[in-house]
Protein: DUF3592 domain-containing protein
Organism: Devosia rhizoryzae
Amino acid sequence: MTSFDNVLPQRPIRIKRTGVWPGIFRYLGALLLLGLALFFAIWQVPGVADDWMISQDPVLVEDALISDGECSTSRGFFVDCSAHVSYAVKGKQIERDIELMFLDFGSGDYAVDVVRSDREPAKATLSLGLDMLWNRTITVGVMVVLLAIFGLALFRSGLQQDRNRRLAMQGSRLSLVAVPVLQLNKVIGGTVVQYQYGVGKKQQALLTTSRFKKNEAPLWLEEDGTTALAVMPERGAVPVLLDDRLERLDLTAAERAEIKAKLAGA
């Protein structure tokens, strides 16, 4: 069927169920990612900033004591090092806890010394921290920025999702569209259907999902189950998949029968 003109009633139709989750779940995910970005910033940025200052006038502390020093590797390249250092300057005892995070694809132990600032003796770090200063700066910066970008993108996606749900349920003139179905995944209580609804500015496929209950199935346009029918609300950006019994639409029994007859005879 190449044209879907006059298949649907020529009146505003409300979509009773979209099969789309409310945006709240994306908002929670966005808050989690933004919280992680803030955590990494609070955890690492002050230490990196102090070490940049120390690097301007470093002084090796030869009689410093390093305790509880350890480095652990995560995912094969994220290295997290911590140590407690104590040293004396002009008879005043100074103690500091040091945390370092950087990327290193090698392995083995690290030989370190304690280095302090000549101008501010209370600020100290490990020589490893200065050796990896650019590495640490880039690593922390990239992680914080990426987490923040993904969090904001997820929040924006939630806003768009809620807008589409709101437009669908308000009732408007609907347009029938055919959409390629890419995946069907069984979940508890039904099936999640992934489908493509367009192409982005960078020619990437625009994908979304719709959840069907156990007793529901998409309204297939092709018998091989690769293309399904959806409806696009007025001012909508994402079409909503139809179920095979057309119960997602607020229609009368006679209207449903007429639509099915038109589709079957096409």
Q: What stands out?
A: Helices lie at 24-54, 127-131, 133-170, 253-265. Residues 53 and 155 are 36 Å apart (CA to CA).
